[in-house]
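name: query_chain
kind: protein
chains: 1
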Amino acid sequence: MLVADSPLLASVSCQLLLTFALACVILCAAAAGVGRAAGASLRPLSSNNLLTWKQTHMRRDRVAEDIYTFTSDLYAKVTAGVILTPEGTIVIDTLPFPSETREMLAFVEQQGTGTVRYVINTHYHSDHTNGTFLFPDADVIAHRRCRETLIESGEQRLAEARKQTPGLGEVTVRVPNITFERDMYVHLGERSLFLTPLPGHTGDCIGVFIDGDKILFAGDAMLPVPHVAWGDIETSVRSLQTIRALKPDTVIQGHGQLLLRGELAIEIESSLKYLNCIKEKVQQLLHKGASEADVLGIDIEACGKSRVPLDGLVQQLHRHNLLALYDRFVGEQEPREERVV
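structure:
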């Protein structure tokens, strides 16, 4: 049962995805556990790599009774979730490569708890939505802006991605058929899920809060380093404050490790300080007439964040943030995602 708009809350190897700079569309993944230095060259994924990767098994964690997370080995530790109920299954996000999402689907079938009833997309980026087509009988739920974006540009982005990554050849764009703008409840079996907007990374980001267990699937609203190149700092700050107000016991980030309550408080405070820090430093440098290169010299650790998480990809996210702020403050008009950094 669905209830919409409730009145409650709103490189040793450089074979990475063409990072977030191309809207998480052109997949050039990195082997698990291999870091990448900021500014390293980028190369597309080869078909030989794909043959090896098909044998990779994702990490699966049980975070509560009949609630599991799946973490990609192929790209940036993307996370997705499965909630099993006697009346069917809810999937929260899918994964970049069909082989990974099929592992999730096989797990659901092995559990014998019935078909997948709902797939919830936390936002439109392909590393969270590429596998949605593998659930043809499920209703797909997302923010209204997610549906609009996929209709407007999903096919074009997928066509561009296929040119770089043969492993996406069978992927088709699946557009959400149930959308909301404010808040929404999803009820299945004994589970009640509260869906609420968490924009900032993109305008269509949502979180999925599981009542009772107090588990929040935060999507990319919660990352080891906030990424605001397609959104804005102020909105991201408000979303982090919303996450704090929900008081979850566990948060599943869009990428990386889950956070427990004590860790969450520290991480949110760290992320808020980081966003304030980069904003102030970019403004200060521009006030002195600094160049783009000067702005890119702002070190991630000088703003309180480690350069290690996600096998070093956070350094690229940090650079994208700095470039987006530079564009914003100097009034450049060209979209930053057109540029490889």
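note: DSSP finds eight helices and 14 strands in the chain.
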